[in-house]
Design a protein that fits this description.
heterodimer, A: Rossmann fold, 6-stranded mixed β-sheet, 4-stranded antiparallel β-sheet, B: 405 residues, 2 domains, 6-stranded mixed barrel, elongated, binds adenosine-5'-diphosphate, binds magnesium ion
Chain lengths: 280, 405
């Protein structure tokens, strides 16, 4: 059985072809800048007798270093799509190649390894472990990889620094604001140096200023070469991304380059801080 | 995930629900405690029985009148008239594997000394009795062959009888009346103590069997013949010789069964040990039922825990936990519960046995075997009852677990 190890995961540098051929991919080309290639993806849920077609044939390519915003009405299949991208769910039909690995052929354990090494997932509801400190939440992915206890802590503290939470590492989720909790979740997504960060409505539960702050973090990560795909139904938030994909009824309705993405760091300056919760 | 980290995480998870964890462990604590205590009591009983058998004397054979053939029990043994003084005499002279022979009979009766009286068992025996039972006099002397031949009215007192009839004076040389027959006290036996059943072995009077036959029981036959073989190796030979001799003397045809029964010490020991082992097994089995119930308690709580923590499982899986990581996590939680419960149970069981021991005056033994058994049992219980819930958790689909409300 083929396995992945971290050396096979390309460093987060933009537009650099992967040096090492992944052991899992088999026939696929090495010199490929595509991070994600998806062909005719469908996902049908069975609700008793009724079939719900959440995805009806989605084809898409995403290159390394992109910042994609996925939009669309509620129920258009965005979350279903993201869950499949994140290897949390399996498509009913279609091909999904992530970083030259054909995901459909992987076992449960191999999928877990992909989630651990290549993907950082950020959820709308944060999904932090309660009664567990920010630090321990961020450490969680490293518990499931072969990292020494010391290295685990160092990496986690570093990830928390990146999201500006170095002062809060021993706080519990219920001692943190929504924005701070989402930043912990982002730190957790980052800690294992993923090739891609997937965020399903990460600002859905946040106020507008905090939302922009979260977008600022994503933009910085993207500048460092990390590919980001995020779902949002707010055009304001989408305007920070470099590419806009709109879903409708389980299909892609439009797929456009955002020629002039806004810069979150600058936008923040124009928003007066109403409450001081994140500065507190 | 390293095993030490998992164990630490398990402890923390259990700490979060202290009361629940404790109650879950309580089942195992009680189960293991009960098993340990019951084994301790059972093994104490076994020990007592062995002690008692040993106190019968060495290489002892007992011949009873009556056969064992009828339904396996000796029928009307007490009134059987097949064993005689002459039989005993013949065994002594004709069986080379036999070292000592003591004909036996008995009578119950009221004993009076001065203004004190005491009811006890009067055993009629021969002079060899002291050799066979390895039981000698402490003061005075035992009666002699002469006394047996002449049916002299002498006796030897057990320590308890002596203490009760002669609290302040030396009984040796004094006169007592047994069922109104006057006897002279020749000596007092050494103290033998209680047997396993709590009977006082020193509550006895020994007299020549001839005297007991003629003066007390008025029953001219023997109730038993006590024999000791020349060595432990010759017990079977002795038994064979006695059987052949008695069958010849009693003119028993080839196809007929014996009209007497010979029991040797190892028969008695085996029977008694078997009984007490059955007792031990019975006690321990009853106790294991509570261990089983404790295990079901663990399974129940682990199932609840898996359901409650479905989202946690989803989160862990979403960051890369494999099924086996989740399995290990929950299995170790179950194991920590059962092992911790087991250890506390062993300690409580040991303490409980000591308490029972001191209150009931019954010896108890905590052996390495019973500790290992309980320990192994608790590991098994944890693994067995923890596995199903842990597997259930491990097989969850990441997205279903994450969406679980
Ligand atoms: N677990 C599920 N079982 C059945 N139907 C589902 C499930 N998850 C989503 N759906 C259906 O699939 C469609 C797409 O859902 P979703 O991907 O969550 O949309 P979005 O995130 O764009 O709002 C919806 O009609 C929804 O009802
Ligand atoms: Mg959604």
């Amino acid at each position: 059985m083929n396995t992945i190890n971290s050396s096979q995961i390309p460093a987060g540098k933009n537009n650099e072809p992967p040096v090492i051929k992944s052991g899992l991919q088999g026939e696929y080309s090495i010199h490929n800048n595509k991070l994600i290639e998806i062909e005719k993806l469908t996902r049908t849920y069975l609700l008793g007798e009724v079939e719900v077609h959440a995805l009806r044939g989605v084809s898409i390519e995403v290159s390394k270093g992109e910042f994609v915003a996925i939009m669309g009405a509620s129920g258009s299949g965005k979350s279903t799509f993201m869950n499949i991208l994140g290897c949390l769910d399996k498509p009913t039909k279609g091909n999904y190649i992530l970083d030259n690995i054909e995901v459909g052929k992987l076992t449960r354990d191999e999928l877990a390894l992909i989630r651990n090494k290549k993907i950082g997932f950020v959820f709308q509801g944060f999904n932090l472990l309660s009664r567990t400190t920010a630090l321990e939440n961020v450490e969680l992915p490293l518990f499931y990889s072969t990292v020494s206890n010391k290295e685990r802590k160092e990496k986690s503290v570093e990830a928390l620094k990146k999201v500006g939470l170095e002062e809060r590492i021993y706080h519990y989720p219920n001692q943190l604001s929504g924005g701070q909790q989402q930043r912990v979740a982002i730190a957790r997504a980052l800690v294992n140096n993923p090739s891609i960060v997937l965020a399903d409505e990460p600002t859905g539960n946040l106020d507008s200023r905090t939302s922009v702050e979260v977008m600022e973090i994503f933009q910085k990560l993207n500048d460092q070469g990390i590919t980001i795909i995020l779902v949002t139904h707010e055009p304001d938030i989408a305007s920070f991304a470099k590419r806009h994909i709109v879903f409708r009824d389980g299909r892609i309705k439009s797929d456009k380059i955002n020629v002039n993405p806004r810069n979150a760091s600058e936008v923040i300056k124009t928003i007066p801080s109403i409450d001081e919760e994140d500065e507190a | 995930m390293k095993i030490l980290n998992i164990i630490l995480a398990a402890f923390r998870a259990l700490q979060r629900n202290k009361m629940r964890s404790f109650l879950t462990m309580l089942g195992i604590i009680i189960g293991v405690g009960a098993v340990i205590t019951m084994l301790a009591i059972g093994q104490g009983a076994e020990y007592s029985v062995k002690q008692q058998i040993a106190s019968l004397g060495t290489n002892v054979l007992i011949i009873f009148p009556g056969s064992q053939q009828q339904g396996g029990i000796r029928v009307g043994a007490g009134s059987m008239t097949t064993l005689t003084e002459e039989d005993a005499q013949a065994i002594r002279t004709d069986c080379p594997a036999v070292a000592y022979v003591s004909p036996g009979t008995f009578a119950g009766g009221q004993v009076i000394a001065g203004n004190l009286n005491w009811a006890t068992l009067i055993q009629g025996v021969g002079v060899d009795y002291t050799q066979i039972r390895d039981w000698d006099v402490q003061y005075g002397s035992f009666f002699t062959d002469q006394d047996v031949k002449g049916a002299t009215k002498v006796c030897v007192l057990g320590k308890t009888v002596a203490d009760n009839l002669f609290p302040d004076s030396d009984p040796v040389g004094q006169n007592i009346r047994i069922r109104n027959v006057p006897f002279k006290v020749a000596g007092v036996l050494t103290k033998k103590g209680q047997n396993a059943m709590g009977q006082d072995q020193d509550d006895i009077i020994l007299a020549p069997y001839t005297t007991v036959q003629r003066r007390l029981s008025h029953f001219p036959y023997l109730r038993q013949i006590l024999v000791s073989a020349t060595s432990s190796k010759s017990i079977e030979t002795a038994q064979k010789q006695i059987t052949d001799l008695l069958r010849m003397r009693h003119k028993i045809a080839r196809y007929e069964g014996d009209d007497f029964t010979i029991r040797n010490q190892s028969d008695l020991a085996n029977a008694a040990t078997a009984t007490s082992q059955i007792l031990t097994i019975l006690l321990a089995s009853i106790a294991s039922v509570s261990l089983l119930v404790g295990g079901i308690g663990i399974m129940n709580i682990m199932l609840v825990s898996v359901t409650e923590r479905t989202r946690e499982i989803g989160i862990r899986m979403s960051v890369g936990a494999r099924g086996r990581d989740i399995l290990t996590q929950f299995l170790i939680e179950a194991l920590v519960l059962s092992l911790l419960g087991g250890i506390i149970g062993i300690i409580l069981g040991a303490a409980g046995s000591k308490v029972i021991s001191s209150f009931a005056k019954w010896p108890t033994f905590i052996t390495a075997f019973s500790i290992l058994l309980s320990f192994g049992f608790s590991i098994l219980v944890g693994l067995f009852f923890g596995f199903y819930p842990a597997r259930k958790a491990a097989l969850l689909n990441p997205i279903d677990a994450l969406r679980y409300e």
